[in-house]
Backbone:
C-alpha cells in the first residue's frame, strides 16, 4: 500500500491539503475525501463533488456520500471542499 503524502484527518479516507494563493497572499485549507481504495488503483478515474464550506458541511457531506455508496445508489467519488478554519 502506498504511503499517504498528506496528513490524515479524523474522517476516514480524508486528507487536508494546504494551497497558497500568490494572488491574495493567503493559505487555503482544502479537505479531500478519497475513495476507500484510491491508493491501490491510481489509474482509476472518479467523479468529483465540489462541496463549499468545508468547515461546516464536509463531515456531513462525507457521511451522506458514504451512506449512498454503501447502498449502491451512487458510485464511489472524490469530495473536494475548501475550509477556512472557522471551527478552530
Residues:
Amino acid at each position: 500500500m502506498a504511503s499517504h503524502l498528506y496528513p490524515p484527518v479524523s474522517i476516514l479516507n480524508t486528507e487536508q491539503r494546504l494551497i497558497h494563493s500568490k494572488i491574495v497572499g493567503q493559505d487555503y485549507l482544502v479537505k479531500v475525501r478519497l475513495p476507500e481504495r484510491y491508493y491501490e488503483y491510481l489509474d482509476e478515474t472518479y467523479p468529483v463533488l465540489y462541496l463549499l464550506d468545508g468547515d461546516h458541511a464536509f463531515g456531513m457531506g462525507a457521511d451522506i456520500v458514504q451512506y449512498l455508496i454503501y447502498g449502491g445508489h451512487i458510485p464511489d467519488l472524490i469530495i473536494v471542499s475548501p475550509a477556512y478554519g472557522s471551527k478552530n
About this structure: The first helix runs from residue 54 to 70. DSSP finds one helix and four strands in the chain. The mean pLDDT is 88. Strands lie at 14-21, 26-33, 48-50, 78-83.
